[in-house]
Each structure stands twice: as structure tokens, then as C-alpha cells.
Amino acid sequence: MLPHPYCTLCTKHMETTEHLFLLCKWTKKIWTDPRLQINSTPSNITRFDRWLLEVFEKSDILPEKEQIAAVLWNIWKARNDSIFRGKTPQPTAMVDLALAQQVKFSRWQSKEGQKPINRNLPTRWKPPEQGKLKLNVDASWSPGDFSGSAAGILRDSSGTVANGFVVPIRALSPQHAKALALLQGLKFLNQTEATHMGLGVVQSSGWTVESDSSNSVDAVMGQAESSWDIKAIIEQCKEELLFIKSVKGVAVTVEHCLREANRAADWLANSHRSKNLPG
Ligand SMILES: [Zn+2]
User: Fold this and answer.
1) Protein residues placing their CB within 5 Å of the ion ligand 1
2) CA angle 266-268-272, nearest 5°?
3) Based on the domain organization, do 138 and 106 belong to the same domain?
4) What local confidence, expressed as pLDDT, does residue 225 receive?
5) Which position has the higher pLDDT, 11 or 276?
């Protein structure tokens, strides 16, 4: 997704991260909402990451981090609604939504914290069975400007790389970035080329997609409810899965793996983000 040069909310300024999230007249209305209790309105911000760090350092007098994250997420959604659906942003309603989501998010987080870590997962990448293919996906993300890369590596039972992809993404959190990487991976599998790849006859009776994000994997497989910030992406993932099954007739299993077993995809995403690889 390429950023639009002009802010779609006000159509007057260039859409920089600082403008969109802090300085736009629409965004300012959100931050000045008395319910958020932010007394210092960002007016002369030059770097978004510095502002965010400053806010987080003062978090004893400011709202919780989750609340700020929820507000940022709603600004991003309002921007997309404005671009793709022509909707006018509603600052008051956005604060309502952010506050409601913050409550849900806190609950979801405490549940997640109690979840036991699966110690039985292998720490090294495990090849798929003969005739099957495995796609490992991961994302690399920088909090400063919300930009990142999603990557995937498709390998066969001998560990030979059959194909892969790297794409730029924009995400609000590492979790959001990893969910996007999973979606990109499923979209990649939906492309016809991914089934042929010059491997000769791959009687691929099943594909596995591996991600080290247990939140995304559990949500896509219907084993857990997705947190609000990745809900829309998870729904898209489910659609892609249905599509692969009905159109290609291939069953895809989405599985969780440890970070240690996902190093190749992690490396690919990192290299792409640090511009060592061509887009
Ligand atoms: Zn604007």
C-alpha cells in the first residue's frame, strides 16, 4: 500500500505520520477530547516517535498506553474509511470506540498473559512431509514511522526454497505487522504461480503456513478470538483460506512455530526493511 501524498482527512497537507496522527485538524479534535485527559496537545511536533516516547515516559499522568494505541488505531481506520469509503471522520465517535476497545484489549491481554507457552514446539525449522510445501511468514516493523516488511519463504521437504515474497507494509504494532504477514502469505499461496514454481510435479496434497505469532494463528484457526486490532485482517485470512480450499482444492493448515524455527522468514523481512533487498 503506497501512502497517498495528501492527507485525505483535511486534503490540505502532505500526509506525513506526524500530520496524520497528531497535527491534522481532525486528529487534534480527538487528542483534545476531555475524556482522554491529555493536557498537552501536540502542536509543534517534528518527530512522531519522539512524541510517542515522551508520552509513554509520562504515562503516570497520561492515559494508559493501550488507550493511546487504540486512539492511533482509530485514526488509521478513519483515514482508510475516508480513502476507500468516502466517510467523514467522527472524532467523538472515534474516542468512544477507542475507550471501548481499550477495555476489551486490557481483558484480552490479561487472558493472553495466563496462557501457558507450548514447550513442545521445535526450536529448529522442520521440513514438510514429502510432496508437501511449507510457507514460513514473518514481518519486520519499526515503531518510528509504522513502516515494515512482510516476507515469506516456501520450501519443500528437502528444504529447497521453491519461492518467496517480500512486500512493504504499514502497521501499528508488531502484532499487527505479523498478522499482515500471515495475510500476505495466504494471498501469495492464492496466486496460481505458487502452485507450479518449476518444481516438476509437486503433488501438493497439503500446504502448511507457519508463523511465530500465536495470536494470529489461533485466531485464524478459530481457536481464540482475535484482538480488536487484527480482527479485520484475521477475517481476510479466513476468506483467503476458504478461497484456496474451494478454488485450488488444497487444504492449508496454519500453524504456530517458535521464533527460533522461523529465522529464514524473519531474516528476509528484516533485510527487506533495512533496504538490503530490492522491493
Ligand atoms: Zn490532514
Assistant:
1) 7, 9-10, 24
2) 120
3) no
4) 86
5) 11
Q: Give the three cell numbers for residue 237.
A: 485470512
Alpha-carbon radius of gyration of the chain: 20
- 121, part of any domain: no
C-alpha cell belonging to residue 152: 515469506
- How close is the Cα of 141 to the center of ligand 1, in Å? 24
Calculate how far, in angstroms, residue 147's C-alpha sits from the geometric centre of ligand 1: 19
Q: What is the CATH number of the domain that holds 190?
A: 3.30.420.10
Q: pLDDT at position 201, please?
A: 37
Residues in a beta bridge with 137: 152, 211
Q: Is residue 4 part of a domain?
A: no
State which of 113, 146, 169 marks the end of a domain. 113
**Threshold 0.85, pTM exceeds:** no
Instruction: Give the list of residues 6+ apart from residue 112 with CB closer than 8 angstroms, or none.
Output: 215
C-alpha–C-alpha distance, residues 246 and 248, integer Å? 6
Q: Is 253 exposed, middle or buried (0-12, 13-18, 19+ CB in 10 A)?
A: middle
Instruction: Provide the domain limits for residue 168.
Output: 133-273
Q: What percent of the chain has pLDDT over 70?
A: 75
Q: Is the pLDDT of residue 213 over 50?
A: yes
